[in-house]
Structure formats: structure tokens, C-alpha cells
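Teaching note: in complex prediction, the entire set of molecules is handled at once rather than each chain in isolation. The prompt given to students was simply: 'Predict the structure of this complex.' The entities are:
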Amino acid sequence: MRTALTLAALTALVLPTAGCALNQHDNARPAATRPETQARTDERMVWWTHARFGMFIHWGLYAIPAGRWGERTDYGEWIRDSARIPVDEYDKLRADFNPAPFNAEEIVLAAKNAGMQYIVITSKHHDGFCLFDSKLTDWDVMSTPFKRDIMREMADACARHGIRLCWYYSIMDWHHPDYLPRRPWERAGRPDAGADFNRYVAYMKGQLNELLSNYGPIGVLWFDGQWEGTWTDQRGQDLESFVRSLQPDIIINSRVGRSGGAFGLEGESGMLGDYATPEQTIPPTAIRTVPWETCMTMNGHWGYNAADKNFKSATDLIRKLADIASKGGNFLLNVGPTAEGKIPPESVERLQEIGRWMSVNAESVRQTEAGPYDAPLDWGCVTQKPLDGGRTRLYLHVFNWPASGRLVLPGLLNDGGSAHLLASPATTLNVSRAEDSLVIELPAAAPDPIDSVIVLDLSSAPDLNKPPTITADADIFVEQLTVSIETDRPNVMIRATTDGSEPTLESPAPPLVPITESTVVKARAFRAGRPVSPVTSRSFAKVAPMPPVVEGLEYGLDYEFFEAQVKSVSELDGLTAKSTGQCPDFRLPRQPTHDNWCYRFRGLVRIPADGVYTFYTKSDDGSRLTIGTTVVVDNDGPHSAFEKSGKAALAAGWHPIEVTFFENTGGNELVVSWAGPGIEKQTIPARVLARRPAR
Ligand code: FHN
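The expected output is the structure of the full assembly:
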């Protein structure tokens, strides 16, 4: 029975926590006790961090339907689940698997010639089918007409060409009778009576023993499918120890633990495995605290989909490679071979173009570290590597060749330096100083239309004088705003203006008085009487808070549930909901274990006082939050769990709020939070959420 609440009653009401499933891990994250020293970890990882670029291969029985089942053509490697194919029907694909044209040499050389130095291939994906000869099951390639051990052939070809072979292995297994949970839609037809998950773990260990004993040294064990309730961090630690006991030098990704994925990029502690694995997304700024690797498809599918021709361009992929390396990460770029074992021609073309670029510029990616700048510059990005004698080599990846002929490196205080085109070392370039920037004079024509690399050798570590940071709660305010200005640079003086003029030595020093009118704050660092940083500026606007709406209310939110495969929340517009209901807050009313489902929440949020409020969504996959008609948080697109935020100036009272979310493949998560005057960041509590009563 719904209770119509007055505004006052709702304001005071503290709602009982509802029965919605909390979207949280079912175990405390154990402190990841590393069984070795950091030096040993670094030693194990050195080939991987030097490589910077690898090939991901998603291949299996799902390549036979090639994305088509019934009338739909948008499936991928999840087809057995997404199309709800009963296991006996899916098993028939085994008899059709005979990729006679498969040539391991061809695939390995395609990777090598693209500049990739490791290959991660699906030895077993979620459907449980093994592309290797397993004595523990006949659900493997040796039981198909092909009868060849694909992993053996890949291992031999990799050994011949100096490519590190790595195994993708899915913890989740939709075929093994002991794996739990079952796919929800097949529980009736495939009961789990007698299933023993511990027996499944023993099977998994037996297969990992085969994969780590029969194919030589393996570079990485790339676990996946770790997110279901039966898997825990404790099991992950046990599996990690087991794997290392078989190959002590192996690298293991973070998905061996329940919380794997982009884990570790938001500063959580206790990541299991050796590196974080953001998926289909590149962190906005450099990550220097934990090794990480972005994995990404060339089109929209991991497994082969014949209809999906939406491939990223070679230009986009090359620039992504440089961007990722400039932030300290690896790029694991996916191909999905056809049922015949051939890499799709569109992927081959892109690999060849990338290889052309790498044949000239590989050293600007390989064995590099994150460059001195945390985020890309307007012309491109920077990687770096140490040279002997404390010198540093910068690789300037110039995507946008400046028409002025002058490449500006803001805030770089190093004296001089020598520069040349990587593509033609004899072409030395003039380096000069313009106040706090280094300027390199460029030839008129860019050596490469996609990414021209300039080498800049510095006599020491980069002395990057980042501009002072101007911090405030928001760029907008209602009454007044305190603005602070800091720098982490030694022995500099900050000067600032609030009238939009350029700061000089004569300008005031911080702290500034609180601003009460719209203002442009500019700041600059000075050392020994001269500017040693770019001018940084930030505009602050005094705004009228959005007016509230006032009407009779009921507590709770309305939600719509959709079953649809989307890559953006905007694709939900116009779709018919599969079900609707009410829920007390933004916790997912339920989390189907299959793929491709979405929620839209609608209601009102009570703003306690005029002010600027920050809203956050952390989601896997995409999400969007609007207040009224304003998009405040845009966290859209297929990606692993990532948080984004936005701000809005709001008057006290009720404001319409809407959150839309979609789950594509893999894990799922939605956390909606807020912060504001007197409110520390927290999930938006039910007591400030309401809905308009059904008319
Ligand atoms: O569910 C899988 C998916 O099929 C694919 O293998 C990706 C690759 O990283 N991992 C999971 C989704 O996060």
C-alpha cells in the first residue's frame, strides 16, 4: 500500500532499507598479501611493461553463428546466453567446428607485424568450450572434426616468432555441470541439483595445470568471468597461488579476484593479481600507481560478428595506443577470428596500418613510461624513457601539427634540450624558451598524418612546472565561493588576478577573498622574478538556483526495466519497458545474470538548501543522470565500472531526477551518489527521494 506523504513528513521520514539487492561484494576484500617483494614483481612484469601493446583474440564456437541467431544479428561471444540457446542445442555447434584454413603462423605474424609483443587468446570463454586438448572434458577442440590442438599450434608459432603467448581463461562456465549459478533462464531445463562448485574449482585447476604444463612458458593468465556470487577474493587468492606454483614468472590480471576489472584505478587497495584491466575505456589521466591495461574491441564485438562493420579507424587506434602509453598503460587490442579461423579483413587492414606506423615509431611506445603531463595536450601526448646519466628522452606524439610551426610544451622548465624527428634523426629541430614553455620549431609538413613523433632529449628529469591549481567546490555558486590556489612546485611565488587580467609579479598573492560575483581567476607561478608556469585560469559563475517543483508526493522512485542490447543510454528512448515498478532508491531492483538489460529511474530529489550539488554515477556499463532537463552526469557507453560526476546549482525543494543505466556484457554495477552544502559524498538516501503519485 503506498503512503501519500506530505512534504514535511517526507522530509523527516527515515525509510527502512528496502529489500532491493544491495549492489555490493559478498565478502570483505582481504588485504592482498603479495607472496613476493615489489622488486620481484617488477622483475616479473618488466617484459609486459616494456611491450605496451598486445593482441586479444576471442575465438570459439560462437564464431560459427557469427552473431546471427533467429532474426537477430547483433550477438557476440555471449550468444548462448543472450539468445537463450539451451546447452544441448549449442553443443551441436561442436560438430560444425572445422576451421581448416586456420593458420597460427598467419595470426602470430599479423600481431608481430603490427608491433604487438604478446597475444592473449581465449583458451576457454564463458561457454566452457576449450580451444585446447583437455583430458578433463570432451567439450574441447579435439572432439570436433578439426581435431587439432589450436593452442599447441599457437604456442609453437609464438615461440618461433618471439611473441609471448598468454591465456584468457573464464572462471564462469556455462557448460560444466558443477559451475554455479546456472543462467537464470535455463534453471528449469538445466537444474543444478548435485552441482558441487568445489568440484568445479578442482576441474578448473586441472585445466589450468594442463594449460601451464603442456605449452611452455606462458606470459599472462588473463582471468575473466569473476563477478558471480560463487566467486570470492579468497578463492581468487587461492587460484593465484596455485597458478604461481606452476609458473612462478607468470603475470596474472586483477580479474582473478572477485573485484577485478578496472579495479585499482580508483585508488582502492587490495587488488588481487598484478594489473588492472579497464575495458573499452581509457583513463582520462595518467595512472602511475598500479600497472594497467586497456582492452578494447576494434568494432563493437569481442567474438566475431559478421554484421558489425563499425570498426575504429587505424588513425583512432594508433592515437589510442599513444594516449594509453602516455598515461602509463598497455593496449590489448582485440580481433575476433571467423569460423574459419581467419582474422576479418577490416581488422587485418588496421593491423597493417598500425604496423606501418610502428615500424618507424615503435620506440616511442615500447619501454616507455607515462610522460610528464598527466593529461593529453591540445596537439597530442608525451611518453618518456630514462637515458643514462640521469637524462630523459621525451617522445612528443603530435596528432595536430601546429600551423604556426611552433610546438609549445607548457611549464617545462628544463634548460634547452636537443630535438629531432624520430622518422629522420638527421633533422634536428631548434629548441627555445618562451617564458615557462619550451618551444620547438617544426618543419612545415608533418612526417606522419596520424602521429608524428619528435624526440626531445633533456639533460635531467623533466622539470614540469604544472600551473598552480585553482580549487573550489564548483565552477558555479549561488551566494559566495571560496577559491584556493596551490602549487606542488618548490620555491615559487604565486600571483593571481580576479579581473581577468594576466597575473604579474605585482599581482596579489593568495589567499583570495571569497568571490561573490561571477569571476575569472587567473594564476601564475614566478621564480627569481620570472614566470615559470603557464597562466592557469578558471571561470566561476554566480547562478540563480534551479527553481524546485512542488506537488503531492509519495516516497520511492518509479523504474522501468528493459531487456535490450544497447551501447548508449540514448538508445532506450522510444523502447517499451519489459516491466515497471517502484523502488525506494537507485539500488538496482534486481540484477539479472544474463546480458543486455537496462533500467530507467524517475522521481524527485529533495534539495535541503540553495547551493551547488555534485552528483555521481559509478556504473558498469553506461549511465546518465539528469536533473530536470539538464544532463548532470554523462557516464555513457560500454565500459567497466567507472565513476563520473557533474554539478548543478539548485534551490531548496524538490527537483525532478532521472537515472538511466545499461548492462552490456560481464559485470554490472550502479551506484548513485551526491554531495553538497552540509552533505558529505554518499549514496542518495531513500528519504530524499519521492515520486509523483499515479494519477
Ligand atoms: O564477458 C566478457 C566478455 O565476453 C569479454 O571477454 C570481455 C573482454 O574483456 N570480458 C568480459 C566482459 O567484461
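Point out the following to students. The pocket of FHN is lined by residues 77-78, 224, 279, 295, 302, 665-666 (CB under 6 Å). The chain has four domains: 7-19+35-364, 371-458, 469-542, 554-691.
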